[in-house]
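Technical note accompanying the year-one report. For the benefit of new consortium partners, we illustrate the data format agreed upon in the data management plan: each record pairs a sequence with a structure-token string. No post-processing was applied to the example shown here.
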Amino acid sequence: MSDTPRPHGPVPTESVWDYPRPPRVEPDARRVVVRHRGVTLADSWACQRVLETSHPPVFYVPRNDVRFDFLSRAQGATVCEWKGTASYWTLAVDGHTVRNVAWSYEDPSRAYRSIAHHFAFYPGRVDLCLVDGERVRAQPGDFYGGWITGEILGPFKGGPGSSGW
């Protein structure tokens, strides 16, 4: 978990309506940081980004770049028709608990093996998520965990009136 900034050029603008279905996974070498109540929970230069039609990207942080002393496995699971079964994680820090703050696919389907043992955090359930120093906005709604940054264009599924998209 290095604090050394990486140089990068202009970021192209991406429309979530150009993302594929089923979703695509691609490596992302930008620095991703997740913090809550002053604690850095994740800090990585080696994330996987999942892109799916109508959704902002989800960043999956490698297990080695996540602080597990604050996370415990939550009860329950969900099934994605493409990725497989997701496990959820609860955060306990400074006497506060955030249920289902993150999820992971420990044994994803074959096409999504690159996100095995990676963790995706809901940006709306922690104090701060950053991508190369830019503060992330949470995808509308409570079900999806997309990360909205300046290069991502909507409209995004998840907000009021979008359930039928």
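Partners are asked to follow this layout when depositing records. Residues 106 and 116 are 5 Å apart (CA to CA).
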